[in-house]
Amino acid sequence: xxxxxARGYEGASLAELTGAMGITKTSMYAAFGNKEQLxxxxxxxxxxxxxxxxxxxxxxxTARAVASAFLRGAVCTTTPPGGPSGxxxxxxxxxxxxxxxxxxxxxxxxxxDAGVRLEERxxxxxxxxxxxxxxxxxxxxxxxMTMGFGIAVQxxxxxxxxxxxxxxxxxxxGWPA
Length: 177
Hints:
Layout: H1 2-11, H2 14-21, H3 25-32, H4 35-48, H5 53-57, H6 63-78, H7 88-91, H8 101-127, H9 137-156, H10 161-173
Helix pairs in contact: 6-9, 6-10, 8-9, 9-10
């Protein structure tokens, strides 16, 4: 997972992947089938581990708390001490040759699913009166997703947690009352 996170799908060589796992190429193929299947497993692990903040954020009691937890989770996940900066789902899809199209499409689906879940949560917030009736759940979800992935890009550019938290603070200034 960490090799894909740091190098992206295309940038991660089989030698780096097998070296990180401490296995041979033959063992890797026997265990996972191919690089794409290994990437799918790494993405599952990422979603259940470092990126689990996105699912936890949906459980917050208010829409603003959901947005805050999502964005602050993005800050923490994309700036781990001693770990790769940025986001596996962004880094992994930057280059996309024909051979890597399946991995690219998998990441697009993964990111779109996160946006749909945010939209559904914000729609519930409108229905419950937590957000104003004229709030647009889809627009809010796209905003939060865009900010989250922008945080990942800025983390990969070298911004640290304090600077990224300031960006979150600024983003939340315009949150609907």
